[in-house]
Amino acid sequence: MKGLYLAALITGLTGCAQHTEQYASTQQTPTRSASEVIKQAKAHEWRNVDKQNILKITLPTGPAYVELNPQLAAKHTAHIKQLVREGFYKNTRVYRFVEGFVAQGGDSSGNKPIKTANKTVPAEFYHTTTQPLKITELQGDGYAPVTGFLNGFAVAQNATNTKTWQVHCHGVFAMARGNEINSASTEFFVTIGQGPRYLDNNITVFGRVLEGMQHFNRLQRKPVPNTPFNPITNIEVLADIKSDKSTFSVMNTDSQSFRELIEARKNRTEPWFVHAHNYVDVCAMPIPTKRIN
């Protein structure tokens, strides 16, 4: 038994050495820092976000702008836009918090009538394609065989690249549901803490906050007497607001600059860093976003 244990130990140590050598051989030193990559990215490596797919959520301390993701969740995108355009979210509120987790909003009473939209929307936990869907890949992780980026969103896939879903990172926009899989209706949430990846494939994620996360973070955690609790003045589709000329641009996640940005994040070269990990997880890759108007 001792001989078998010693042999196994030697094999394990040898495997560790081989892994270390492999790790060292694949590690690359970026030629530019992350900030330099973003600053020097060419104009064609950015895309203007379609205002038809941006929600403006007006909160007590200011507006938040959310980009919707119709490519992976077309039904949810259409559903919430219909709710928004019928005025459902006027004078609702953000009523539920789990600190470091989510802020949930909508009609907490469950009694507000829906005028034109369906009462529920079928789950869209993942988008299925007959052929592999190409993404800008990272290494997989404990939650998915493949992770990466698609059209400006952090996503994951199955091993054959035929099921794709947006993952729960900080600042994502998702629809709440009950125990029934297809029970999502009107209540939404935004992740305000570290991404709860264990919710992947359990709830439909269909957007991310482009600007205004600070307004979710500044919301009250508990009601204050004689004070409205986190009122939502309104949620609107940006394209419908003639007085708001806000325009946002997102780096193309299939661009060469974004691939260089991944390498720069995997191995930080700034003077402060003393160790490079040659790794970055999908939620630690902020997708460059800028306001251009």
UniProtKB/TrEMBL annotation:
UniProt keyword Isomerase, yes or no: yes
Its name, as the record gives it, is Peptidylprolyl isomerase
Q: What is its EC number?
A: 5.2.1.8
Species of origin reads: Pseudoalteromonas undina
Record keywords = Isomerase
Its EC top class is isomerase
Upper lineage ranks? Bacteria, Pseudomonadati, Pseudomonadota, Gammaproteobacteria, Alteromonadales
